[in-house]
């Protein structure tokens, strides 16, 4: 029982550490869902599960030695949230409503995958070291914590101050969050330095 609790605690700690920035993204999406109707709340929850599931699945496959991810090229996924943010800025420049940066389940999943591409580097050595029983515990903890993350973001997204802030500055704040996330992904992945080397 002690081993089970320790395994679950380790899984929770790793999930929290690698997905803390998802709270901000999910909150922005839930505010947009409340004010603009897109994406729908179920799109957000299902998209988050799909995105996290894809990241964990990729990590398990890499850990099993069945696939090699071309590091740091996964950092190019940062272009997805940048593109979504720029598109929202251009589409809603003359509107007071917060832009629907992501309007579908697959869009939410795509942003989750892009935002978590660096998580794979953490998950791979972890899953490589786990036996099947411990791996199952990790997967169950991750699944439970996705629900917790979505619930916390939904609560934040319904808080009057958060709603007012997004209402006042949503036309630029929401796209800026996505553009900022994309820039962080590009810079922290090292892909820009690799591109500079190739260009030089």
Provide a brief overview of the structure.
It holds the Pfam family Cad. This protein is an all-alpha fold and 200 residues long. The protein is built from 9 helices and no strands.
What is the distance, rounded to the nearest whole angstrom, between the alpha carbons of the first and last residues?
56 Å
Mean pLDDT: 80
The main sheet comes to: none
Low-confidence stretches are none
Global outline: flat
- How many structural domains are formed by the residues? 1
Number of helices: 9
User: Which structural class is indicated by helix and strand composition?
Assistant: mainly alpha
Please report the total strand number as a whole number: 0
Percentage of residues in helical conformation: over 70%
Content of β-strand: under 5%
Query: What is the quaternary state of this protein?
Result: single chain
- The sequence of SSEs as H and E is HHHHHHHHH
What is the radius of gyration? 18 Å
